[in-house]
Amino acid sequence: MSEETGHNTDPVNKKEVARFIDPYSDFGFKHIFGKTPNKNLLISFINQVLKGRKVIVDIQYNNIEFKGSGVDYRKTVLDLHCTGDKGEKFMVEMQKAKAINFKDRSIFYTANLIQEQGIGVAANWDYKMPEIFFIGIMNFNFDDSHPDHFIHDIRLMDNNTHQEFYSKLSYTFIEMPKFKKLETELESKLDEWLCILNNLKKLSEIPLSLVGNTEYEKVFELAEMGNLTREEMCEYNQGLKIERDYFSAMENVREEERKEMALKLKAVNAAFNLISETTGLTIEQIESL
């Protein structure tokens, strides 16, 4: 064990090995939230996100979807049929995904979910829809969002009267990198859940303030590397490799785009310092093009 962090250390590479899996990985997200035996954890988390608009007492996993291995490979969808404490039925689509066109993707998924309601129904269907809540757990920030707000409650609203126009469709986006509260600053159960998600892979043990909460302790138990089967560990490592390869490929694409922009600016005799500020390339890199 490392004396400073308590993490295990790889004896060959001398690098710290995380004790807990990354909940933002496809495997980690599915392993913690995507299995029926763990549905009490998902119910607890979603109820905190919904902030009393609904109180879930039961869920059914309608679909767990993982798509592709190419440019759009990072996509995890939990399509949930929920029962509220008043017996009402509604749907929650919970998504963890990469930043590429995420707003468009969110609309696309809910549109598909809406369309599916009309498939196979009687000809005299009256178009009455269930409520649909979309929750986006984002391990990235929107480019155009307010720096002080990390939870976005999006609903259809009349722009003139500011009254809610349609209450059955809403979107909640949580920009996790903006959540920076320390353990001593947590004020609510939602804060505690977000703190766990943001810090799980970096922790060596469950924080003292969370000890005694059976749900949180279950998350840490599920996430502990030593509790994974050989097959689960292989799946997790393979997923991490795909993510690293994807990140490397995207970095190469961005580098080529920066070089192309620099060449265009050089062609019109732009100052090198301006090119550097615009593209992020160093003066030396620009001179070598």
TrEMBL record:
UniProt cross-references to InterPro entries, sorted A to Z: RpnA (IPR010106)
Matches recorded under Pfam families: PDDEXK_2
UniProt cross-references to NCBIfam families, sorted A to Z: T_den_put_tspse
Name listed for the protein in its UniProt record: Rpn family recombination-promoting nuclease/putative transposase
